[in-house]
Specification:
15 helices; six-stranded mixed beta sheet; alpha/beta
Length: 427
């Protein structure tokens, strides 16, 4: 077992546009375990009061560079959301995705032991991510001897749904900006996992959107008249990715063919860089709003922007996962969380798109600058020592550790969140 830990105390921000191009994080940990056959990375991109947060993913294609970009994405996401916490990410690269639950638990435990100090001291708060669940993350922490706060034992298992909620809200805003009637539109979703399946359900049931296509790791389904979301969800439960071979009333396509379909909305909810120079020219969608992190390369963003495609920056579209989990801890309902996301995000997304049109600049670069300015304001405010800030931090600690009863928390927490999640900075 080899473990390499590297620290950087310099300014972590990149010069100019493109914050995901070669980011330099505060802490980078590399774990090599030849005996168990895995490589793992923990990257802490930024910290506020010595705390960072981000998911831990496990799959064959993960790399050190990917984890660095994803950690920077978390900084951007927290900056936009107004959450005073640093951005981080962790990943374990395995030889095959087909590993049993026991093997995965052992790998997570082995990796967790090597980053124990970061986990135990709260410098890195791990969450679920690609090919991991919150139950698995909690089991890892328990296996290495870390006691979970009460709130983490009971919540944090629905981030996929909350992520889908914010994607839906971003599509509402984009449609309003473009004067598009969502109920008359059709949607293609790459990745029918936790986020993609929830998004299909929300857009179909709440907005009347026609789900024209979905994809899994096995391929894609397409029916221009619409897919039956209830049937899809049942088949997913029974067959997993192979649901596409058991649906029947649709054309079976390759995963790549999904990106060129004649749809109004395209939502990548799978892996990074799935939309790139190789397929951007084929995209016919008018709006792209992602549940995945970094689904579009910068060069593809620029090419699509020239074509007139409206792309909601990924860290804005999918920020509901981190916000929703926070509000769920406080005992707040799904309806409250949906309305909260709408009230906090909709006007800013429209403001972003208006500025993009006015300046003829891609939304992602405007949003990166905005989010990093917001993050720096939060960092400075959080590090000021005052009686008010001390009391606020004590209240949050009581909330997270389950000291405040859920019914009482649900009454008082909305007043806190309205002030805690800053949204007063305009694009």
């Amino acid at each position: 077992m080899q473990v390499d830990v590297r620290y950087n105390n310099d300014n972590f921000l990149n010069d100019g546009e493109g914050q995901l191009d070669n980011p330099v994080p505060k802490v980078a940990v590399t774990v090599e375990d030849s005996r168990s056959g895995f490589s793992g990375w923990l990257v802490i991109d930024s910290m506020i009061k010595e705390v960072s947060c981000g998911g831990l993913r496990v799959y064959p294609g993960v790399s050190a560079e990917e984890i660095k970009r994803l950690a920077r994405t978390m900084t951007l996401k927290y900056g936009f959301s107004g959450m005073a916490v640093g951005g981080a990410k962790a990943g374990i690269r395995i030889e095959s995705a087909n590993i049993d639950a026991l093997t995965k638990r052992r790998l997570l435990g082995s990796f967790g032991k090597q980053i124990f100090s970061f986990l135990n001291e709260g410098k890195y708060i791990a969450g679920s991510d690609l090919n991991t669940s919150q139950v698995e993350i909690n089991s890892m922490l328990k296996d290495i001897g870390i006691r979970l706060p009460l709130y983490r034992r009971k919540t944090g298992k629905r981030s996929g749904f909350f992520t889908a909620l914010s994607v839906m809200v971003s599509l509402e805003a984009a449609a309003s900006f473009m004067r598009m009637n969502l109920s008359n539109s059709c949607l293609a979703v790459e990745g029918f996992g936790e986020v993609g399946s929830a998004l299909c359900w929300l857009m179909s049931k709440k907005k009347g959107v026609r789900i024209a296509a979905i994809s899994t790791t096995a391929g894609a389904l397409y029916n221009p008249d619409g897919l039956d979301i209830d049937v899809l969800l049942q088949l997913r439960q029974k067959f997993g990715s192979d649901l596409i071979f058991n649906y029947g009333d649709a054309e079976v396509l390759t995963k790549e063919e999904l990106f060129g379909l004649d749809v109004d909305i395209l939502s990548p909810c799978a892996v990074q860089h799935s939309i790139n120079d190789g397929n951007a020219f084929a995209v016919k969608a008018k709006i792209i709003s992602a549940g995945a992190n970094i689904p579009v390369t910068y060069s593809a963003e620029k090419a699509l922007f020239k074509k007139g495609v409206v792309i909601i920056p990924h860290f804005i579209a999918n920020c509901g996962g981190v916000i929703g989990n926070k509000l769920e801890v406080a005992g707040l309902s799904d309806t409250y969380i949906e309305n909260f996301l709408r009230s906090k995000n909709s006007h800013r997304i429209i403001s972003l798109l208006e500025k993009s049109r006015l300046t003829n600049k891609e939304p992602v670069f405007i949003a990166e600058d905005y989010s990093l300015r917001q993050f720096e304001i939060m960092r400075v405010l959080a590090e000021r020592k005052s009686l008010k800030s001390t009391l606020r931090q004590s209240l949050v600690a009581c909330l997270h550790n389950g000291v405040i009863p859920a019914k009482l928390s649900a009454i008082i927490s909305p007043f806190y969140f309205e002030r805690y999640f800053r949204n007063d900075i305009r694009f």
